[in-house]
Each structure stands twice: as structure tokens, then as C-alpha cells.
């Protein structure tokens, strides 16, 4: 018997429609976020803690750099800023992860108090710890 029943068609339609609805809902949720300043965007993804404050201060002291220079380096990474401005947490974290991988591949790393961190991670702790 190769007849489609109403129940079979309904279940098949639901199975196909659920993932499409989930993806569309996720994109809609990410699209309706209000715009924020770039520093507050970063701080919303990486809230300051005692550890980030300490690590950021040590990095700035050791490098002789400033939090503003770190923010400018982060702003030059267009894919991170686009993802952060979209408000989509998954896209933003994915962009940060990719930037960190690229830093390690290119040898842009720093060692602070025994921690080996990518330049992107160091910039984030400098910006978020300073705010």
C-alpha cells in the first residue's frame, strides 16, 4: 500500500517545517536587537570579572599599550564587528573563535602570567577589563 494518508502528510510537513521555522525565528530574534556602542557590545559578550580585570591590566602594563589601541585593533576586524552589531550571539562567538584561531596560526600570541592568549583575546580583556 503506497497511499499517503492525511496523518502521514501532516507529520511529514511538520518534520520539514520545524527546522525552517527555527532558523527563521533565530534570524528574526537576532535582527531586532537595538544598536549599542562597540565597547558595550563587547562587554555584553565578555562581562568584566576580577580575572579579566587583572589579566587586562597586566597585558596593558606589559605591552605598554592602551585599551583604546586594543579597541581599535578589534574594530579593524570587520567580521567581528559585523557579527557583534548583528546582535546574534552565535555569530559573534563564532567570529571571535575564528579570529583567535587566525591569531594562533599567524603567531600573534602573548604570554601573560603563564597564560598563552591570542592577540584578539588580549584585546578583549584589555577593553572589557578597562570599562
Question: What would you say this structure looks like, in words?
Answer:
- The chain is mainly alpha-helical and 131 residues long.
- The chain folds into two domains: 1-31; 48-131, no CATH class.
- Helices cover 74% and strands 6% of the residues.
- The chain is built from seven helices and two strands; from the N terminus they run ααααααββα.
- A two-stranded antiparallel sheet has the order 1-2.
- Strand 1 and strand 2 (115-118) form a beta hairpin.
- Helix 4 crosses helix 7 (119-130) and helix 5 (78-86) packs antiparallel against helix 6 (89-106).
- It is elongated and about 75 Å long.
- It starts with 5 loop residues before the first helix and ends with a helix.
- The mean pLDDT is 79.
Outline:
This protein starts with 5 loop residues before the first helix and ends with a helix.
Largest sheet: 2 strands, antiparallel
The total of beta strands comes to: 2
SS class: mainly alpha
Strand order of the largest sheet: 1-2
Unreliable segments (pLDDT under 50, ≥5 consecutive)?
none
Q: Tell the overall outline.
A: elongated
Query: What's the overall average pLDDT, rounded?
Result: 79
Secondary structure layout plus pairing:
Blueprint: H1 6-31, H2 38-45, H3 50-63, H4 67-76, H5 78-86, H6 89-106, E1 109-112, E2 115-118, H7 119-130
Helix pairs in contact: 3-7, 4-7, 5-6
Amino acid at each position: 500500500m503506497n497511499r499517503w494518508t492525511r496523518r502521514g502528510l501532516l507529520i511529514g510537513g511538520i518534520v520539514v517545517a520545524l527546522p525552517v521555522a527555527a532558523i527563521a525565528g533565530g534570524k528574526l530574534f537576532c535582527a531586532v536587537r537595538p544598536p549599542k556602542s562597540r565597547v558595550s557590545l563587547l562587554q555584553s559578550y565578555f562581562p568584566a570579572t576580577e580575572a579579566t580585570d587583572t589579566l587586562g591590566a597586566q597585558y596593558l602594563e606589559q605591552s605598554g599599550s592602551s585599551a583604546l589601541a586594543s579597541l581599535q585593533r578589534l574594530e579593524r576586524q570587520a567580521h567581528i564587528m559585523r557579527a557583534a552589531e548583528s546582535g546574534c550571539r552565535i555569530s559573534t562567538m563564532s567570529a571571535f573563535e575564528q579570529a583567535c584561531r587566525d591569531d594562533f596560526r599567524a603567531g600573534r600570541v602573548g604570554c601573560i602570567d603563564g597564560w598563552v592568549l591570542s592577540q584578539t583575546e588580549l584585546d578583549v580583556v584589555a577593553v572589557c577589563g578597562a570599562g
